[in-house]
């Protein structure tokens, strides 16, 4: 039946859309309580997560699968959208990020305004992210990104009273509009070169396009998407926005929504680069060697990756405020992820995917801890966290785990993601080895600023009793709240669990990445 | 049946968790777990007589081994593979002795004792893991896992400048570990080995071209060397050792430095013999530099603990020299020396810690004639100093003697360089003894008392082993030779 075969595969998206509409409609009729909107939002995200798990044929849920197994990983999909196992994995990653943030936000002071709007926008943005993950057409992809962007512009400003948030939202909006323009311009050049916007078709055409036009089109697309993914030199907005946004929203932006930019890189560049490389299309008339379009794009992406991680790390070293430090570290981590796109082999894609998943847990979790700590009346400076690890062992230990994972210490998920990523670059040999070297040097550098926070939390202090009032003092668990404690605990537990035994997660990601790259090549 | 090595790992892990949670009874839990650990290590030794011939078919050359699949992807395989040979067995014995002695010595720790004892046990767990790992990733995991508890031990329980020291320790050794990891990964990917298991790396490493081997060896040497520590990358050591609490210094000097030596022998010398051969001059140069620098700088120290710390650089320089010789005797001497230095430097750090407790200072010049006040402490200090300078019948002697003999075989009269420096070190230890413990009493605070029973017990255990293995070094030598050292470099 047409109807069911059309509706079925989109069940997760439909669930999220329904949750969004219900929350907004309740808001219109005046039901704005945090408990109600929050429960609807978190439930919607949880159900969508299980449905996607079912689509990936995970055993207890496989019976619920709505995407026919034969429709996943098609060789030459023609429609606007296509289900790939890597896309489904990314849907899971996006839903994890949104779920953690939604769960934590249940613990805001219950009198706060805008709860309904927050949850409605959260599910709406997540819906857009799910669509990005199944895009098979440039226009579909860019429109889905737009849906996420618009929802997140509003999320940053949802409190409507904080001047800093408003400023951040304004910056976010202006930069976002510019990046959208660049992306669409690039897409139009590619349409000129290839006569289609279908990604699979573009990939198949390979060298048929006019090399200069193709290179220009991809150049504009790189610039546009690099804004979303916070790659240097298009990163400057991110720190101000993460810093100014409400803490939970920062967690969602850094841990969740910016990853659509990186997944878009996979979709748009991976297959075509490999096809172009194989075809040997050249931008020079005598055409050979390094001036081929494929290698030029690979090297350009590699250079952006190295630049991004280095600039992010060096600036993170210099920060005195916790949120700004985390924001710069988030930029540097995007650089690691881009290595996967530049190298373009199945191992590299798997490594980047695991790194993105890890980053959801580490950075998203870290911002959630920041929100909890700010709720306890602690100031924004790193030095304000003096002695916190001893006074609040739960927050201290969880935050330490997240930072150690960001630094890539063994037995955390961050170790495996870096290990797989860097070893894939070494395995690819040639100039990719230098990407691994740059990544390793950078992660060595990053240890310094993560260890410094540990030092402040555990060795400095005890802190002088703070005079600032604790905004969340009324919440249970000493001002943290059940929802937030659960979200932080879940993130920390996953960091360690996957760190100790990564085989199930890594195995699934590897299989998905192999399908993805095989379909592209 | 679970293999004994995994059982020990589980014991230590469960033991440290239990210690963390034990609250006021933490020290009893820690002591009990240490005793259990020592007993299990004893069991491991009981299996030894059956080894010559190497019972294990799983990993050639290793006894008591076990292997389980951990992460298998299409382009690499990581297994949990553990096993011991003679080299690791001796160093495991050292781990068990030092853990027990450290916990006894720190019996009256008052600052968060549960966390302190738990971190001590985690450090020992990491060291034990390094000694038994036969997979690159597992090895690296334990290697790094040592850093975190030690970072906290130095940073929270240490002296006035502890935060700086902890951070410096962490950053130095972490950067070195990363270089080491790159070296090991490059080894795997360039040699076309199928997995990260020691046996496949061992088989593949020697097939590489000599030039590649030489470069990889240098990378590994840097990674392991910072732990050693080799001059000029040694500056973390004085800071870390001096600022750490006594228990931390004992583990740092006794165990952490040994990781460098063990790693160099196991993962570089055995795996890349061709590269080792090419790089020998570099090793000799660095070894002489470390020996000379360590002793010259220790001459200038007024602080007893700093003196012991710099003499560690000197002694580990001799270990490097013995490794660099590259003969069967040299490697044997290196392992013996590591064991000896582990016991003796631990003893001397405990002495300096006790001196600090009772005199309120470690300044050598401001104390004099302390023997009548603190006879036991003076005795321990004397034994430690004599063992450190290589008096026969104490453990330092067979180790240093065989190291010098091996050097003579290879380098001839160059042996007088380390020999002369040993004489200088000896003179300095005796001079320290003379100033602090002999002569007329001077600068001893009122109420200075001899060492309490638990500190005495901790040092006493170390003295027992100093004498036992000093009189009967054959006990260790036979064990050490149940390894590729016998007949090295072979064919």
Question: Which short descriptors sum up this protein?
Answer:
heterodimer; A: 521 residues; mainly alpha; 74% helix; globular; B: 491 residues; two-stranded antiparallel ribbon; 18 helices
What does this 3D model show about the protein?
The complex is a heterodimer of chains A (521) and B (491). Chain A has helices at residues 2-7, 11-28, 34-55, 85-105, 115-133, 138-156, 163-194, 199-205, 211-228, 236-244, 247-257, 259-279, 293-317, 322-343, 346-375, 388-391, 393-407, 413-428, 432-458, 476-479, 482-500, 503-520. With 521 residues, chain A is mostly helical. Chain A has one domain. Chain A starts with a helix and ends with a helix. The mean pLDDT of chain A is 86. Chain B has 491 residues and is mainly α. The model of chain B is unreliable at 53-57 (pLDDT under 50). The chains are: A mainly alpha (521), B mainly alpha (491). The A-B interface holds A 346-347, 350, 404, 409-411, 415-416, 419-420, 422-424, 426-427, 429, 436-437, 440, 443-444, 447-448, 451-452, 454-455, 458-460, 501-503, 506-507, 510, 514 and B 70-76, 137, 140-141, 144-145, 148, 151-152, 155-156, 162-163, 166-167, 170-171, 174-175, 178, 181-182, 185-186, 189.
Q: In short, what is this structure?
A:
The complex is a heterodimer of chains A (521) and B (491). Chain A is mostly helical and 521 residues long.
How many DSSP E strands of chain B? 2
Helix content of chain B: over 70%
Q: Would you list the SSEs of chain A in sequence order as H and E? A: HHHHHHHHHHHHHHHHHHHHHH
| Class of secondary structure makeup of chain B | mainly alpha
Give the ordered list of helices and strands of chain B: HHEEHHHHHHHHHHHHHHHH
- Rounded to an integer, what's the Rg of chain A over CA atoms? 22 Å
> Helical segment tally of chain B?
18
Alpha plus pi helix count of chain A? 22
Number of strands of chain A: 0
Structural class based on helices, strands and sheet pairing of chain A? mainly alpha
Q: Largest beta sheet of chain B: what is the strand line-up?
A: 1-2
* N-to-C CA distance of chain B: 37 Å
- Specify which chain pair forms the largest interface: A-B, 38 and 31 residues
Low-confidence stretches of chain B: 53-57
Distance between the termini of chain A: 33 Å
Largest sheet of chain A: none
């Amino acid at each position: 039946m047409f109807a069911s075969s059309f509706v079925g595969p989109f069940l997760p998206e439909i669930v999220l859309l329904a949750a969004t509409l219900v929350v907004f409609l309740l808001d219109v009729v005046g039901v704005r309580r945090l408990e109600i909107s929050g429960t609807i939002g978190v439930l919607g995200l949880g159900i969508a997560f299980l449905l996607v798990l079912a689509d990936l044929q995970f055993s207890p849920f496989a019976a619920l699968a709505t995407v026919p197994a034969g429709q996943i990983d098609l060789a030459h999909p023609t429609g606007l959208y296509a289900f790939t196992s890597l896309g489904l994995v990314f849907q899971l990653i996006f839903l994890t990020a949104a779920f953690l943030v939604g769960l934590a936000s249940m613990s805001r002071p219950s009198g706060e305004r805008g709860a309904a709007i927050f949850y409605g926008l959260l599910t709406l943005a997540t819906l857009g992210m799910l669509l990005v993950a199944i895009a098979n057409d440039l226009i579909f992809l860019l429109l889905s990104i737009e849906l996420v962007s618009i929802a997140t512009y509003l999320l940053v400003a949802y409190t409507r009273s904080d001047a800093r948030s408003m400023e951040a939202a304004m910056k976010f909006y202006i930069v976002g509009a510019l990046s959208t323009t660049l992306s669409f311009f690039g897409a139009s050049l590619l349409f000129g070169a290839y006569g289609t916007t279908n990604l699979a078709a573009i990939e198949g055409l390979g060298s048929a396009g006019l090399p200069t036009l193709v290179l220009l089109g991809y150049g504009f697309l790189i610039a546009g998407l690099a804004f979303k993914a916070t790659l240097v030199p298009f990163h400057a907005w991110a720190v101000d926005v993460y810093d100014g946004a409400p803490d939970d929203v920062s967690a969602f932006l850094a841990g969740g929504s910016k990853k659509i930019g990186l997944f878009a890189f996979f979709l748009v560049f991976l297959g075509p680069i490999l096809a172009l490389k194989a075809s040997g299309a050249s931008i020079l008339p005598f055409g050979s060697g390094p001036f081929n379009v494929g290698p030029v794009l690979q090297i350009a992406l590699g250079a952006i990756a190295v630049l991004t991680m280095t600039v992010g790390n060096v600036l993170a070293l210099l920060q005195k405020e916790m949120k700004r430090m985390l924001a710069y570290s988030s930029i540097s981590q995007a650089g690691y992820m881009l290595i996967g796109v530049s190298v373009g082999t199945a191992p590299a894609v798997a490594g980047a995917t695991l790194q993105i998943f890890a980053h959801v847990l580490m950075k998203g979790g870290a911002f959630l801890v920041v929100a909890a700590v700010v709720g306890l009346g602690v100031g924004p400076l790193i030095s304000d966290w003096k002695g916190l690890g001893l006074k609040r062992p739960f927050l201290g230990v969880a935050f330490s785990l997240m930072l150690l994972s960001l630094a890539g210490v063994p037995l955390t998920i961050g170790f495996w993601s870096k290990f797989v990523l860097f070893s894939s670059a070494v395995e690819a040999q040639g100039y990719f080895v230098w990407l691994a070297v740059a990544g390793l040097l950078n992660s060595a550098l990053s240890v310094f600023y993560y260890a410094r926070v540990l030092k402040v939390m555990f060795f400095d202090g005890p802190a002088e009793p703070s005079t600032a009032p604790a905004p969340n003092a009324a919440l249970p668990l000493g001002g943290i709240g059940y929802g937030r404690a659960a979200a932080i605990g879940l993130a920390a537990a996953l960091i360690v669990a996957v760190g100790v035994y990564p085989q199930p997660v890594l195995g699934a990601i590897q299989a998905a990445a192999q399908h993805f790259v095989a379909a592209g090549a | 049946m679970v293999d004994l090595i995994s059982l020990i790992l589980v014991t230590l892990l469960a033991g440290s968790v239990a210690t963390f949670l034990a609250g006021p009874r933490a020290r009893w839990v820690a002591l009990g777990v240490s005793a259990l650990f020592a007993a299990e290590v004893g069991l491991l030794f009981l299996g030894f007589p059956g080894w010559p011939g190497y019972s294990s078919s799983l990993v050639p050359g290793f006894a008591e081994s076990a292997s389980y699949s951990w992460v298998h992807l299409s382009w690499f395989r990581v297994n949990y593979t553990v096993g011991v040979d003679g080299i690791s067995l001796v160093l495991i014995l050292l781990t068990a002795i030092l853990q027990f002695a450290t916990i006894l010595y720190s019996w009256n720790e008052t600052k968060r004792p549960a966390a302190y004892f738990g971190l001590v046990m985690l450090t020992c767990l990491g060291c034990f893991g390094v000694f038994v790992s036969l997979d690159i990733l597992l090895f690296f995991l334990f290697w790094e896992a040592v850093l975190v508890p030690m970072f906290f031990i130095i940073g929270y329980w240490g002296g006035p400048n502890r935060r700086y020291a902890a951070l410096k320790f962490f950053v130095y050794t972490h950067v070195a570990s990363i270089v080491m990891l790159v070296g090991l990964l490059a080894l795997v990917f360039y040699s076309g080995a199928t997995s990260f298991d020691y046996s496949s790396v061992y088989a593949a490493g020697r097939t590489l071209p000599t030039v590649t081997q030489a470069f990889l060896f240098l990378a590994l040497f840097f990674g392991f060397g910072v732990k050693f520590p080799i001059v000029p990358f040694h500056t973390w050591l004085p800071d870390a050792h001096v600022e750490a609490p006594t228990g931390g210094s004992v583990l740092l000097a006794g165990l952490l430095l040994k990781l460098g030596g063990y790693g160099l022998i196991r993962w570089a010398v055995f795996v890349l013999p061709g590269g080792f051969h090419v790089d020998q001059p570099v090793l000799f140069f660095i070894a002489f530099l470390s020996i000379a620098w360590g002793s010259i700088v220790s001459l200038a120290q007024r602080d007893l603990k700093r003196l012991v710390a710099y003499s560690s650089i000197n002694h580990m320089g001799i270990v490097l020299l013995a490794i660099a010789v590259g003969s069967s005797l040299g490697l044997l001497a290196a392992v013996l020396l590591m064991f000896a230095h582990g016991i003796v430097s631990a003893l001397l750090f405990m002495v300096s810690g006790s001196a600090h407790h009772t005199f309120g200072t470690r300044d050598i010049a401001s104390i004099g004639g302390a023997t009548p006040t603190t006879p036991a402490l003076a005795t321990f200090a004397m034994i430690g100093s004599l063992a450190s300078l290589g008096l026969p019948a104490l453990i330092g002697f067979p180790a240093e003697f065989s190291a010098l003999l091996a050097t003579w075989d290879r380098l001839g009269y160059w042996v007088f360089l380390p020999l002369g420096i040993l004489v200088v070190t000896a003179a300095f230890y005796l001079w320290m003894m003379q100033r602090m413990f002999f002569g007329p009493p001077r600068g001893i605070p009122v109420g200075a008392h001899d060492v309490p029973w638990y500190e005495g017990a901790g040092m006493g255990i170390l003295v027992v082993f100093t004498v036992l293995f000093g009189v009967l070094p054959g006990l260790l030598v036979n064990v050490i030779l149940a390894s590729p050292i016998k007949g090295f470099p072979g064919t």
